[in-house]
Write a structure and sequence with these properties.
alpha/beta, 8 helices
Length: 176
């Protein structure tokens, strides 16, 4: 059975790493641009995406959650950071990750947060890696994104292009 995939990301952290998306624009427009691109990316990649924006220094008293197909947009409540929300979600899904039913990736460039979520079973990627991945998916019409890994663990070999994997397999078998 293929495991499902979930991508959690700190929205403001990704916007900070993507200046051309937000440069010279009001913050609301930059958020909308990121939401639009992530909605497309979620469709290409076949994974659920949860985009989290901090509201911990605002006056927002309640968390708001908006479902947009495979994309969920969360604005945290006052006093709650995106990091705390993401960590709690990782904790909620820990058992599914442990059983190999779910792969969680967390996109943030915050080193402390990367360490925390890694300790909770998530795969960590930097905001820049995610941006690159999204650009590739858009450029390649979704061909860059591979389906979820079917085994309980991920290997380097699974992430190589098919041509390289077949060459390695030939070498392994002693074929030339």
């Amino acid at each position: 059975m293929a495991r499902s995939r979930l991508l959690l990301l700190d929205g403001y952290n990704v916007l900070g790493a993507w200046p051309e998306l937000s440069k010279g624009k009001p913050l609301a427009d930059a958020r909308d641009a990121l939401i639009h691109r992530l909605h497309d990316y979620a469709g290409y990649s076949g994974q659920r995406v949860i985009l989290v924006f901090d509201a911990w220094q605002s006056d927002r008293m309640q968390r708001s959650i908006e479902e947009r197909g495979p994309l969920t947009v969360v604005f945290t409540q006052k006093g709650e950071t995106a990091d705390h929300y993401i960590e709690r979600r990782c904790d909620e899904y820990a058992r599914a990750v442990e059983l190999g039913r779910l792969e969680i990736r967390v996109a943030t460039s915050d080193n402390t947060e990367q360490t925390v979520v890694f300790g909770r079973g998530a795969i960590r990627i930097s905001s820049r890696e995610l941006i690159y991945e999204m650009r590739q998916a858009r450029q390649d019409g979704g061909q860059y994104i591979r389906p979820a890994v079917r085994s309980g663990r991920s290997t380097v070999l699974e992430h190589l292009p098919e041509a390289v994997r077949s060459q390695i397999e030939k070498l392994r078998r002693g074929e030339t």
